[in-house]
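To whoever picks this up:

The nightly regression suite flagged Methyltransferase type 11 domain-containing protein as changed. Nothing in the input moved, so I suspect the structure step. Input below, exactly as stored in the fixture:
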Amino acid sequence: MSLTVRPHFHHYKNKMGKPTSTNRDWTQIYAIYGMDQWQTLLFLLCHAIFFSILSILFLFYFDPVCKLLETGVLLFTTSASSTGAARFAAGFTGCVMALSAICLFFAAGNFFYSSVALHHDMAQRMVSYVNDWSSVKLALDIGCGRGILLNAVATQLKKTGSSGRVVGLDRSKRTSLSTLRTANMEGVGEYVTCREGDVRSLPFGDNYFDVVVSAVFVHTVGKEYGHRTVEAAAERMRALGEMVRVLKPGGIGVVWDIVHVPEYVRRLQELKMEDIRVSKRVTAFMVSSHIVSFRKPDQHVWGLSEVRLDWRC
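Regenerated output under the current build:
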């Protein structure tokens, strides 16, 4: 069996070129899936509130703050210039705190949006890269987490009347149990199986899956070495190689990730993958993200593959 990569996805975009949700708002998505790394969101919100309070205090107590600063400035300047310097310092500090609060609130909002609504929207886009789900017998979601992408794949299998199944792989058994609960809530529990394992050594044989997908996960592989180290990059490339290994000839791989996408493209070229496509940039978690899709050739092909930058995605 040889699947094809679908090149156009206009029905998943609005006029601004951003992905749009399909009949669901963020409250419905959050009610089922919640969110990962809520500690990060709490950290951002607490600091945003802290800087907001400080900036308000500077606004309401501007003159006392200026007098306090003026006593310190007097130690280094003449009395004539101390007042102006103190007012400038107080105003500048208050502005910095206010801007910091705004930036932190924006970061918290973007983090929440990326974890919930955007994750769901991108999952819908990713499943649309596969042209014919009815012929898919086995699919794999690497780093399935809460199951947003996993259940999107299972929904496609259910819609097309396929007898196939999708396997969700995650590092934690506890996460796998939570993912199965969300699958049952979505009504696709019979299409979903979860396994615990390491993406760097997948517990599956060669040429096992028709489709392999992954959403904002591969960049976390090797994080124990630090994200920018050679060791971490080697671990990510090892994980990508494992994805290709378990993919059947003619099968489709779709990866949505942040930061390291150029590395993935180079590695896929080295592995002689075909129909490599890179989507238009989408901001997620305050950084650039892209969807990379590829097809495993039916036969081994020599030479680097062509990379298509499909900006219409």
